[in-house]
């Protein structure tokens, strides 16, 4: 159950991330008929051909971003709303998460799940997150949970100096990339192979 996941994460990510994952009930973010599988460490189907990411991947991405209390975070690819809920826990009540999803049915699903989990500091919007969300920019952190052909320029531009962005990049072979905006430009770190659904949009894949 929930303890199994925490056991897998311990020693691999920070205690802060583990505690946030412990507090957010993943079973409220998966379809009712598969709730008994909610604490398996793998992606699960959420409808519309999309998935909720595996817990270890959510933890790893949150850990790489070093999310602190009070931050403003953009989350691209809301899906079930689970990843946004973990980020919301990490930024705390003084922080804010803007989460954008392309598929209207999933926007409704995520809003319902976040309400059931009593998460108050996530605003879910429908749209093409490959363009970012300029209305609320700049962001301290940007989390992208779908793979892009290359790092979308609008997302880089919407980062604060000192801000960080994590994103899977590639199609057949995908790699998790951490981008940090510095005074001079952008620094990239590569964090190994991953498997994500495509980021579909103007600065993503044109499917
Ligand atoms: N973070 C999600 C969760 O916790 O359940 C899982 C994300 S799922 C792996 C990727 C999501 O990205 C899908 O729901 C998909 O519809 C969405 N997506 C793909 N392209 C997008 C785009 N351009 N803008 C916003 N969402 C997009």
From TrEMBL:
<comment type="function">
    <text>Catalyzes the methyl esterification of L-isoaspartyl residues in peptides and proteins that result from spontaneous decomposition of normal L-aspartyl and L-asparaginyl residues. It plays a role in the repair and/or degradation of damaged proteins.</text>
</comment>
<dbReference type="GO" id="GO:0004719">
    <property type="term" value="F:protein-L-isoaspartate (D-aspartate) O-methyltransferase activity"/>
</dbReference>
<dbReference type="Pfam" id="PF01135">
    <property type="entry name" value="PCMT"/>
</dbReference>
<dbReference type="InterPro" id="IPR000682">
    <property type="entry name" value="PCMT"/>
</dbReference>
<dbReference type="InterPro" id="IPR029063">
    <property type="entry name" value="SAM-dependent_MTases_sf"/>
</dbReference>
<comment type="similarity">
    <text>Belongs to the methyltransferase superfamily. L-isoaspartyl/D-aspartyl protein methyltransferase family.</text>
</comment>
<feature type="active site">
    <location>
        <position position="53"/>
    </location>
</feature>
<keyword id="KW-0808">Transferase</keyword>
<dbReference type="GO" id="GO:0032259">
    <property type="term" value="P:methylation"/>
</dbReference>
<protein>
    <recommendedName>
        <fullName>Protein-L-isoaspartate O-methyltransferase</fullName>
        <ecNumber>2.1.1.77</ecNumber>
    </recommendedName>
</protein>
<keyword id="KW-0949">S-adenosyl-L-methionine</keyword>
<keyword id="KW-0489">Methyltransferase</keyword>
<keyword id="KW-0963">Cytoplasm</keyword>
């Amino acid at each position: 159950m929930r303890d199994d996941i925490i056991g897998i994460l311990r020693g691999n990510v920070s205690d802060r991330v583990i505690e946030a994952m412990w507090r957010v009930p993943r079973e409220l973010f998966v379809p009712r008929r598969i709730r008994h599988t909610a604490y398996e460490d793998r992606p699960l189907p959420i409808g519309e051909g999309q998935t909720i990411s595996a817990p270890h991947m959510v933890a790893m991405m949150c850990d790489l971003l070093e999310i602190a209390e009070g931050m403003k975070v953009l989350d691209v690819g809301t899906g079930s709303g689970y990843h946004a809920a973990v980020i919301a826990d990490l930024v705390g009540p003084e922080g804010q998460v803007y989460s954008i999803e392309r598929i209207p049915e999933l926007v409704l699903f995520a809003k319902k799940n976040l309400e059931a989990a009593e998460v108050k500091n996530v605003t879910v919007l429908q749209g093409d997150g490959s363009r970012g969300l300029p209305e609320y920019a700049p962001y301290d952190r940007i989390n992208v949970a779908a793979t892009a052909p290359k790092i979308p320029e609008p997302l880089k531009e919407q980062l604060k100096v000192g801000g960080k962005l994590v994103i899977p990049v590639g199609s057949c072979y995908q790699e998790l990339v951490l981008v940090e905006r510095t005074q001079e430009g952008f620094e990239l770190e590569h964090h190994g192979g991953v498997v994500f659904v495509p980021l579909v949009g103007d600065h993503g894949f044109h499917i």
